[in-house]
């Protein structure tokens, strides 16, 4: 049914995958040709440039390496035997990076978790809400 499924995951937040990966598994089980794309975003914070001189030069590379290891581990633990699974680690603004990857992959659907909103989410808007508003493809939001 879905040829290309994009699954944004925060590798530091288990609630971002605990309810989503079983849902993705169900979506992809019916079609062996499905491609599942797990993605995590290493956020870029412009304020960090001020302290860059105090951070090891390869800090971002290390973050990306650890994120890739975690994504690979999640794929092995939860998605073995269904479709083709690819892991992506990108950096930048979280929702922009996810939307850009969805478009470049020509994703049919984005499946992501959403937490219970806090007050700050009503003021700024959570990532899930921004993705839902701006995605060109279908979005399935799974409550954790």
Descriptive tags:
single chain; 144 residues; alpha/beta; 39% helix; 24% strand; globular
Q: Please, could you describe this protein's structure?
A:
The chain is α/β, with parallel strands linked by helices and 144 residues long. Helices cover 39% and strands 24% of the residues. The protein has five helices and five strands. The protein has helices spanning 20-29, 59-78, 94-105, 119-124, 127-134, and strands spanning 4-8, 35-43, 84-92, 109-114, 138-143. Strands 3-2-1-4-5 form a five-stranded parallel beta sheet, with helices on both faces. Strand 1 (4-8), helix 1 (20-29) and strand 2 form a beta-alpha-beta unit. Helix 3 (94-105) runs parallel beside helix 5. Mean pLDDT is 84; it is low at 119-124.
What's the helix and strand layout?
Blueprint: E1 4-8, H1 20-29, E2 35-43, H2 59-78, E3 84-92, H3 94-105, E4 109-114, H4 119-124, H5 127-134, E5 138-143
Parallel strand pairs: 1-2, 1-4, 2-3, 4-5
């Amino acid at each position: 049914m879905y040829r290309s499924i994009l699954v944004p995951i925060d590798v530091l937040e288990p609630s971002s995958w605990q309810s989503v990966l079983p849902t993705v598994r169900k979506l992809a089980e019916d079609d062996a040709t499905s491609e599942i794309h797990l993605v995590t975003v290493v956020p870029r914070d412009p304020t960090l440039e001020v302290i860059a001189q105090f951070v090891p030069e390869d800090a971002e590379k290390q973050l990306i390496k650890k994120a890739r290891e975690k994504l690979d581990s999640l794929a092995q633990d939860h998605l073995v035997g269904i479709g083709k699974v690819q892991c992506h680690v990108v950096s930048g603004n979280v929702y922009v990076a996810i939307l850009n990857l969805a478009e470049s992959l020509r994703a049919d659907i984005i499946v992501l978790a959403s937490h219970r909103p806090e007050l700050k989410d009503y003021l700024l808007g959570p990532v899930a809400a921004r993705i839902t508003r701006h995605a060109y493809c279908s979005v399935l939001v799974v409550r954790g």
